[in-house]
Amino acid sequence: MTLEEVARRAGVSPSTVSRILNGTARVRESKRQAVERAIADLGYHPNVIARGLARGRSMSVGVITQDIASPFYNETLKGIEDSLAGPGYAPLFVSGHWNEAKEAECMALLVARRVDGVIVLTGMIDDATLLGYALRLPLVITGRNLRGPNLVSIQLDNEQAAFDATWHLIELGHTRIAHIAGPESNVDAQERLAGYRRALTEARLPVDERLIVIGDFHEASGLLALNQLLETRLHFTALFAANDQMAYGARLALYRKGIRVPEDVSLIGFDDLPSSLYTTPPLTTVRQSAYDLGKVAGEAMLQLISGQAVSVPALPLRVIVRESTMLRRG
């Protein structure tokens, strides 16, 4: 079915149908209803790409993630996809793999594809480069505190959430708390480490650098980090992992060493991935909705593209207490 056939069925001009579809027509209600009936009767579906090109748009949005296979980013990408679907935009997903050069290649590829905007999920590209790109096309960036024209930053309070996670362990009576941090170059990891340090300092507990091990946000690094902690033979009764995936790996390492959770070591993660409810025992963690983050990022991008004022709702983070943490015994 074509727009011209809809126009003939409704008894109006093709330009009138086009303007009604675009929401720019000022016509009598009877004409609008006639067009809507014709669309329904004929099963007409507007060519979104053609309409976009007519307005100088590709109807696509680039998304630079770090790891499409990651459970966290997977949920975020779902949120972006759902938010863009209504107006007919399609996301183009590319992975930077925590590599600045690779991310730069991804950005160049997306710009060459003439996407209408780019969403950068945290990432390694430096701030100055991102601000330069924002002069060329709309940008939405998570995990950064950037300000500039044609750009929206969505920042979560990772530092306070990590403080709250560590403080939860302190309130349970733990004074020797280990931490598996994320990559040193990652902003989220830096803020979560800072929150851990601040909680210990405010509780007047020593920050033992030997109880801090660096991971890479994947399960295997959590397992290796926990083994590294055990090799030091330093005593600790609680562990805060900078994300749930590393907490899963640490949990496996503890199990293999015959160390019980939470009876011997209380364990807390960060993200509240869907699978954290089904670990043994269910994982205490910091809830941040990866899906909501993606949805908010997508909605902000649509507002930027259309020239609207951008409104970013608060995305609170909170500790979800489950069975992997308990009062310290003895």
Characterise this structure.
The protein is α/β, with parallel strands linked by helices and 330 residues long. It folds into three domains: 3-46, Orthogonal Bundle (434 Repressor (Amino-terminal Domain)), CATH 1.10.260; 58-156 and 290-314, Rossmann fold, CATH 3.40.50; 158-287, Response regulator (Rossmann fold, 3-Layer(aba) Sandwich), CATH 3.40.50. Helices cover 45% and strands 14% of the residues. It has a five-stranded parallel sheet, sandwiched between helices. Strands 7-6-8-9 form a four-stranded parallel sheet, sandwiched between helices. Helix 10 (219-231) crosses helix 11 (244-256).
How would you summarize what this structure contains?
This protein has 330 residues and is α/β, with parallel strands linked by helices. 45% of the residues lie in helices and 14% in strands.
> Number of helix segments?
12
Q: What coarse outline follows from CA principal-axis ratios?
A: elongated
CATH superfamily of the largest domain: Response regulator
* CATH architecture name of the largest domain: 3-Layer(aba) Sandwich
Tell me, what is the CATH class of the largest domain?
Answer: Alpha Beta
Overall pLDDT score: 90
**Helices and strands, in N-to-C order?**
HHHHEHEHEHEEHEHEHEHEEHE
Oligomerization: single chain
The percentage helix is 40-55%
Distance between the termini: 76 Å
As residue ranges, the low-confidence spans are none
Helix vs. strand class: alpha/beta
DSSP summary, beta strand count: 11
Major sheet: size, sense and barrel closure? 5 strands, parallel
